[in-house]
Amino acid sequence: MRIISFSADGIKNAAEKGFYDWLKEQDADFICIQDLQCSEYDLQDNQFFPEDYNAYFFDDIDGKANGVAIYCRTLPKAIMTGLGFADFDMEGRYIQADYENLSVGCLLAPSVSDNDAGQQGRKNEFYQLLGNHLQKVRNKRREFIICGNWHIAHSAADVQDTESNSTTSGFLAEERQWMNELLESGYVDAFREINSD
């Protein structure tokens, strides 16, 4: 199984830079795209709906920020949008394709600009809710693959300068601790299992 996770920073911008031409050569089973920065309604061109895939989108409430999409080669049994996190679900942060014994999720966690304390508190709230949710779904008899933009650099290998980033949101000690606890609970960072660079 081949899964591509791509943080677009605007799907229209990515398309203009050749993302969909590149995608045609990838032979992926799933493509998870985060940070669409537009609504599905705004995507009128056929390139946004590749013919070999079933395309599903989840926009934020105003269709101008955030947003996630998942392209599935095989038709899923169900598509789930949101995580049941009230205000966060209105921001288009999660979409999941369900199959018989497998769920593939696409996540866009909140980010923080300029270490804003209010934004950081909101981000921490999201991770608290997400951690609780992920522990609950571990009890289901199915496999989960959750990819996306977590807005956390888990280890020193994930950043260029650990000293200057140690006080920056995304590499704070409490964020890395949250990720450690998640991995210690039985989840696996599949990318790092394959790529240790």
Summed up:
With 197 residues, this protein is α/β, with parallel strands linked by helices.
Which blocks of ≥5 consecutive residues have pLDDT under 50? none
Give the overall form. globular
Number of helices: 6
Average pLDDT, rounded to a whole number, is 90
Strand content: 15-25%
Q: How many whole angstroms does the radius of gyration measure?
A: 17 Å
Helix content: 25-40%
Question: What's the total count of β strands?
Answer: 8
What string gives the helices and strands in order? EHHEEEEEEHEHHH
Largest sheet: 4 strands, mixed
SS-derived structural category: alpha/beta
The strands making up the biggest β-sheet line up spatially as 1-2-4-3
**How far from one another are the termini?**
22 Å
What report would you give on this structure?
- With 197 residues, this protein is α/β, with parallel strands linked by helices.
- 27% of the residues lie in helices and 22% in strands.
- The protein is globular.
- The mean pLDDT is 90.
Task: Write the topology of this structure.
Elements: E1 3-7, H1 11-16, H2 19-23, E2 30-34, E3 54-58, E4 68-72, E5 78-81, E6 94-98, E7 102-108, H3 117-137, E8 143-149, H4 162-165, H5 173-184, H6 190-194
Parallel strand pairs: 1-2, 7-8
Antiparallel strand pairs: 2-4, 3-4, 5-6, 6-7
